[in-house]
Amino acid sequence: MAKRHLSLKDLATELNISISTVSRALKNHPDISPEITRKVQDLALLRNYVPNPLAMGLLKQETKMIGVIVPDLVTHFYSSIIAGIEEYAKSQGYFILLASSYENLQKEIESVSNLLKARVDGMIVCVSKETNRFDHFLQLIENEIPLVFFDRVCLSELVPCVVVDNKEAVNQIISHFSQNGYKRIAFISGPSHLSISSSRIEGYLEGLKNNGLKFDPELLRSGNMGTEETIQIIEELLSLPNPPDAFFGINDMVIFTVMKELKKLRIKIPDEIGLVGFADEFHATFSSLELTTITHPTHEIGVKAAELFFIKKENPGYAETVVLQTQLVIRESSSRN
Amino acid sequence: MAKRHLSLKDLATELNISISTVSRALKNHPDISPEITRKVQDLALLRNYVPNPLAMGLLKQETKMIGVIVPDLVTHFYSSIIAGIEEYAKSQGYFILLASSYENLQKEIESVSNLLKARVDGMIVCVSKETNRFDHFLQLIENEIPLVFFDRVCLSELVPCVVVDNKEAVNQIISHFSQNGYKRIAFISGPSHLSISSSRIEGYLEGLKNNGLKFDPELLRSGNMGTEETIQIIEELLSLPNPPDAFFGINDMVIFTVMKELKKLRIKIPDEIGLVGFADEFHATFSSLELTTITHPTHEIGVKAAELFFIKKENPGYAETVVLQTQLVIRESSSRN
DNA sequence: TTGAAAGCGCTAACAG
DNA sequence: CTGTTAGCGCTTTCAA
Lengths: 337, 337
Known about the structure:
With about 325 residues, chain A is α/β, with parallel strands linked by helices. Chain A has helices at about 10-15, 20-25, 35-45, 55-60, 75-90, 105-115, 135-140, 165-180, 195-210, 225-240, 250-265, 300-315; strands at about 65-70, 95-100, 120-125, 145-150, 160-165, 185-190, 220, 245-250, 275, 295, 320-325, 325-330.
C-alpha cells in the first residue's frame, strides 16, 4: 500500500544527470565535481533519500541482520542481554531479528530455518533447555554462517561463546552458605545436557570440597526447571531422612518456587533453610524475602556476544570462549548472622 | 563470509533449462509440463532451495517485516505482547523488527527512522512516556505506511488502535476498594499527555461518583512513573493532613514502590492501607504481599494489534479502535474482609 | 510448453 | 569528470 520510496533514479532524473553520478556524489567520490556533489547531497537531504537496503543486500549478499534466538522473551535475564546485543549491533549498522524457542527444541530448529529464510547474516543463540542435538547448528557452521552462543553453549571448539564463570559463582555460593552455618546444601540443577548444569555441578563438587563439606548425591538433583517438577523435587528433598538446610538453583525462578513452598509449610527462611538463586531477576528484591543471588552482567553478555559475532564474521576459524565474572549479592534469604 | 545461497539460476543450470521455467515450475504454473515440474521441485527440495527474500522484496517493494517499537524490552507486559504480535505475524509470513524507545521520545523518533531505513512494511507501536509530539508518526501516515498503536495510543482518528477498557478497569478498582471500606483512594497516575493516564483518570472520577466517594484533587497525582518521583509523591501523600487509605497506580511497578516504602514505614497492608496495581507483572505473586491488580490480556493485545496491521495494510482509511476487557484479580494487598 | 528480456535499486568496472 | 553497462535473484510480460 505504501508509496514507493525515493530512489537514486528519482534524484538523477530531477537533476538531469546519470544514476551513477548521483551514486558517486552521495559517497563523496573524488572524481565528481564539487558543485555536482553539493547539488546532489543537498537534494538527497531535502528529499530525505535513504538507500534501499534490499538493493544493497542483493548486491552485497548481506542483509545486515543478525538472528537472535533465546529460550524465552519474557525473562528479564534474556531481555536484558537482547538489549545489549541490539545496542552493539546498532552501532555497527545491523538490525536484530528476534526469535524465541520457547524452551523447545523443535521450535528452535524451526527458528533457525526461518532466520535462514530471512537471510540473516548470522545468528547469536542461547539454546533451549531441550537442546541435546546440534544438527541445525552444524548446518550453519558448514555453510560458514557466523554463529555465537551465550550462557547455554555447545560446540565450543567450533563456535565463539560467551559464558559466566559458573564454577567460581557456585564456589562463592557454597562458601557463603558454609560461612552462615549451612551444611546440607541442595542444588536443584537443570537438564544434565546443558552446559550451565554441568559447569555448575563441577563448581558444586569443588565448592563442597573446598569448604570441607561432604557430597551427598541425594542433594544434587536435575530438574527440567518447570514449576511442577521443581515442586516434586522440593517435596522429595524435604522428606529425606536428613533433609537439606540450604537450597540453591539453576535460576531464580526455581528458588522462588522453593520460597513459595517453604512459606506454605511455614518453614522459616533463612533461619531453618537458606536460599540462594542464580541470575538476579529484577524482582528478586520485591519478593517476600529479598533473595540472595548471583548477579549476571547481562548487558555486557549481550554486548560481548555481538562483538564476538563481528569477529567471527571476519575470521571463520575463530572460536574463543569468553568468560565473564558474576557477583554474589547477599540479601535476606541466606543471612543467618 | 558465508557461502552464497542457492539461486534459481543454479537449479536452472543443473537441469539445463531456463530460469523462468524453474520459477514457474516451483509455483506449479499450469503451462509447465508435469515431468519438468516434478524434476524441478524434487531438485529444489533436495538442494533445500529457499527463495531470496531480498530479490522478492526488491521486486514487490515489500520486506515482509513489521517494525515494533515498545517503551522497554524488559517488562513482562511488553514482552508478552511482542510474543503475541510475533505469533500472528509469523502466521502471515512476516518477521518482526524490534526496537525499544527506552521511554525516550528522541530514541523513539530515531527508531522510527531506523525502521524506515530498514524498509519495514509498517509499524506497530506503543509510544514512550515522553511522547507528546507526533510528527514522526504523521510522516508515516502521509506516506501511507501502515501503523497501529496499542495500549498507549494517539491519533486514533487516523490510526487503528488496541486498548483496554481503562475506564471500566478503574471503576472496578474503586468499587473493590469501596467494598473493602477504603474511602480515601489515591491514584498515582502517569504523564498527563498519555492516553492511559487520561482514560484512567476519567474512570477514577466516574468510579468515585458511582461509589458515593468524593473527589479530592490532592489524591490524584501525575508522576513520570520513575522510582524517585514516585517515592516523592508517596511521601507527600502520606504527610497530608488527611492521608489516603488506599493507593492504586498507573502500573504495577509504581505500586511495588509504594509497597516497599510502606514496608519501611511499618505501615500494615492491607489493614492500614490497601494497594492495587495495574498490569499484572508475573512476579506480582512473588511479592511480599501478593498484589491485587488488573490483568491485561497481553498476548491477545499483541495478536489483535497484528491483525489490525494487516487490515490497515489493505485499507488505508481504516482506523478502528479495538477495546479489550481486563480483569480485576483480587489478592492479599487489598483484602480487608 | 518453454525461453528471452526487462526491471526492481544499487554499485563498480569500463568507456569516453 | 561523467555516463553506460552488467549483474545481484526473482517475476512477468512478450515471443517463439
